[in-house]
């Protein structure tokens, strides 16, 4: 594994390092790359002003193909961490949303019932997984359903 230095991240005013496989380093390191919080590592590799995501370039992804970072780290662009995925699979392998207050994916507080409620998105619709008194039990309930419905693409709560 080797590291490619990205341009300065404006928010943190520092360079970030992208992890790549040794065999991809020379091919990638000749371009200028920028770390983008919402996208990953992006660069202009064709010279025409169009931006390309590093992970898509590495995997030679076609226009309609999505690439998933298995560990969720967009700086880890080693081939062992990248896989082709559908849009649904890619979304399944995301952690909790930024506005999540419980800290666990699929878990929220039900004010009227004073319990933790659990739900998971299946085929564009929410499936209720029940109510729990204990937040860890609620997180475990989500994990069980995520493994059932998402398989290897399941993002699991740390419990």
- Count the domains: 2
Quaternary organisation of the protein chains = single chain
Question: The biggest beta sheet, please?
Answer: 3 strands, antiparallel
What are the segments in which pLDDT stays under 50 over at least 5 consecutive residues? none
Topology, number of strands: 10
Binned, the helix content reads 10-25%
Name the shape in a single word.
Answer: elongated
Give the topology string: H per helix, E per strand. Answer: EEHEEEHEEHEEEH
CATH topology of the largest domain: Homing Intron 3 (I-Ppo) Encoded Endonuclease, Chain A
Instruction: Kindly report how far apart the N and C termini lie.
Output: 30 Å
Q: Which architecture of the largest domain does the CATH hierarchy give at level 2?
A: Alpha-Beta Complex
- Give the mean pLDDT: 93
State Rg: 19 Å
Question: Helical stretch count?
Answer: 4
What is the class of the largest domain in the CATH system? Alpha Beta
Widest β-sheet, arrangement of strands:
3-4-5
Portion in beta strands: 25-35%
Which structural class should the secondary elements be placed in?
A: alpha+beta
């Amino acid at each position: 594994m080797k590291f490619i230095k990205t341009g300065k991240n404006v928010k943190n005013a520092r360079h970030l390092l992208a992890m790549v496989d040794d065999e991809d380093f020379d091919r990638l390191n000749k371009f200028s790359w920028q770390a983008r919080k919402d996208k990953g590592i992006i660069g202009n590799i064709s010279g025409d002003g169009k931006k390309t995501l590093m992970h898509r370039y590495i995997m030679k992804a076609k226009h309609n193909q999505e690439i998933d970072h298995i560990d969720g780290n967009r700086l880890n662009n080693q081939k062992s961490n990248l896989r082709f995925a559908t849009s649904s699979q890619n979304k399944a392998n995301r952690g909790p949303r930024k506005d999540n207050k419980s800290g666990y994916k699929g878990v929220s507080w039900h004010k009227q019932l004073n319990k933790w409620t659990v739900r998971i998105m299946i085929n564009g619709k929410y499936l209720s997984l029940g109510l729990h008194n204990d937040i860890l039990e609620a997180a475990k309930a989500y994990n069980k359903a995520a493994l059932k419905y998402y398989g290897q693409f399941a993002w699991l709560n740390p419990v």
